[in-house]
Design goal:
Bound molecules: zinc ion
Strand content: 25-35%
CATH architecture of the largest domain: 3-Layer(aba) Sandwich
Oligomer: single chain
Strand order of the largest sheet: 1-2-4-3-7-11-9-10-12
Helix content: 25-40%
Structural class: alpha+beta
Number of strands: 20
Largest sheet: 9 strands, mixed
CATH topology of the largest domain: Aminopeptidase
Length: 373
């Protein structure tokens, strides 16, 4: 089927130019859920654009009858970030003007304790579709008030204009998928949220990492956390509900790269997820085992002394506690010979992520290990 394509104005630059994003909408013959998928929120993490392109090609060959619901795709969703450079390097993970991380800026519906308990009291015994519709109504009403601030003479910041446009597209969705990569060199995996382990397994990655705390205002979190808070409030009254609403982030490989294996995995994972959700009629491959681990199992190693990083274990390598991860070669200004310091792993695990730079000031990031036990 042919998608409808909508161009959405973001904001105007000092030069007079205007930035925009483009949404590719595949609306199926059958009614159903809405899934929103975006790529390249962090300017240097470009891999999702290739995944979205392949999804557009795939869905363009699919009959309208094979889709129930709507699939919205937004590649290069942050043009300001995508286009930002410092010499050879894409530096658009952060807004250059304010220093804000582009994935920590989003508006989140945060009901008060009273608002939440009133909602739960009113909807005890309601079916899940009714609960979703009513709560979504509350979220959208609160978001309208937030958006109204953009019309005030005092204006809002660039990230606030930007988030308003993206969240207008996704807050009424049922499922939100944000495609990122490491800004460095990383493995392919999914970040998921409480009560959604089975859904995370539909992506068929080797590893699924559970995020258990909100408050970061990341894109997926700002979407899903209000729903998890609601599920928790119902659970406290004894009514256990699992709402068909989901938000997650795919992490596909390395910054500034579109590693073919990561693109292929990303495409297959999303197709599989959409098939499980009943949005796409497609063959569901045999499930692979995904290891679900909490994000607390990731240890980020930062240089304990300043120097040059050498003899570092490669990405994906298994390591035991006490085995060497890397060496740091340090020079000095004390008239002494250079010194090599060896850093060993604190846990049994795998090498999860590697800093691109092989030089580090004391305290700078070198690598991550995922504890797998
Ligand atoms: Zn990212």
């Amino acid at each position: 089927m042919i998608p409808s394509i909508e161009t959405i104005d973001l904001f105007q630059l000092a030069s007079g130019d205007r930035l925009a994003i483009q949404v590719y909408k595949f609306v199926g013959a059958q009614p159903g859920a809405k899934v929103y998928i975006q790529a390249n929120l962090h300017g240097c993490e470009i891999v999702g654009n290739a995944v979205v392109h392949q999804l557009i090609e795939y869905l363009s060959d699919v009959d309208k009858g094979a889709i129930a619901g709507e699939i919205w795709l937004v590649p290069t969703c942050n043009p300001l970030g995508t286009n930002q450079r410092g010499h050879f390097y894409a530096t658009g993970g952060f807004h250059s003007y304010s220093g804000e991380d582009w994935n920590r800026i989003f508006w989140e519906y945060e009901p008060t304790v009273d608002e939440l308990s009133q909602f739960v009291d009113k909807h005890l015994g309601s079916d899940e579709a009714e609960i979703i519709q009513a709560y979504r109504g509350q979220i959208l009403a609160a978001f309208e008030k937030e958006l109204a601030k953009q019309n005030h003479p005092c204006g809002v910041s660039v990230p606030e204009y930007f988030r308003g446009k993206l969240q207008c597209l996704c807050l009424d969705a049922d499922y939100v998928i944000d495609i990122h990569s490491s800004s460095n060199d990383g493995l392919d995996f999914v970040y998921y949220f409480p009560n959604r382990e089975t859904q995370a397994s539909w992506f068929n990655f080797d590893y699924s990492i559970l995020l258990t705390q909100g408050g970061d205002y990341a894109f997926d979190e700002a979407f899903i956390w209000p729903w998890i808070v609601l599920e928790k409030a119902f659970a406290e009254t004894g009514q256990k509900i699992k709402l068909a609403v989901d938000g997650c982030t795919l992490e596909l490989g390395s910054g500034m790269k579109m590693r073919p294996s990561s693109v292929a995995k990303g495409l297959a994972s999303i197709k599989n997820y959409l098939a499980h959700r009943g949005i796409l009629s497609a063959e569901i491959p045999e499930a692979t085992t995904t290891k679900c681990l909490p994000s607390g199992n990731i240890t980020r190693y930062r240089a304990t002394v300043g120097g040059m990083i050498g003899d570092r274990l490669p990405l994906g390598q298994a390591v035991k506690a006490g085995e060497k991860l890397y060496d740091i070669l340090s020079f000095n200004r004390q008239g002494k010979l250079p010194k090599v310091t060896t850093i060993n792993s604190m846990v049994d695990g795998i090498v999860f992520d590697l800093a691109i730079s092989e030089s580090a000031n004391q305290g700078e990031y070198v690598m991550s290990v995922l504890e797998t036990n």
